[in-house]
From TrEMBL:
Pfam families: AHSA1 (PF08327). Residues 37-145 form the Activator of Hsp90 ATPase homologue 1/2-like C-terminal domain. Belongs to the AHA1 family. InterPro entries: ASHA1/2-like_C, START-like_dom_sf. This is Uncharacterized conserved protein YndB, AHSA1/START domain. It comes from Nannocystis exedens.
Amino acid sequence: MIDIVRQIQAIHRDVARRPTAAGGQGISVLLRRTYDSTPADVWDAITNPERVKRWFTQLGGDLREGGKFQLKGNASGDILRCDPPRLLKLTYGGETSIVEIRLSAGEGDTTDLEIEHNVPIELAGSGAGSLFVGPGWDGGLLGLDRYLRGHVAEDPAAAANSPEVQEFSRQSAHAWAAAVAASGTATADEIAGALQASLAHFAPDVQGPPAS
């Protein structure tokens, strides 16, 4: 059983407007959480195809800096920078969609993991665009935590669509809506519309009141 409240609270979420490398404006979606494992182990769990398929999906490609990656049923892209076990920078689903994954040693044998996903404002529309990616990243962080704690799903894709994980995703979507509202990067109407679309995508089979 998943402790949904604990898992939701374990993730720090932030949304902001930031300049892009091309000189325009973009939306930054930032997630941060701590894992009870060393940076070397967490790095291996997110980059080793034999381990990634146990908690997420099949990973293939030319897995090196300058190479390309493909996540089955998900995204593909270019590996812009690979600095084990600290930094992975990728294009994710498009050349203007940039993801940085940063690992640092925490207290004891723990790892602080950050994911920052940047997209141009033309693609995101507003900070409300984070509701189309944030819950997906949350789900990945949940799957990684459960894997590192010894919970290996026979079919990670099926597990990700279970009623329990959909309830996690429902609460995640509301948490992201709150993060967007706090950031001031979208109007109330934009947030409301994006929230409904996010719930329909990430939690189509569950209903309930807004997460508290």
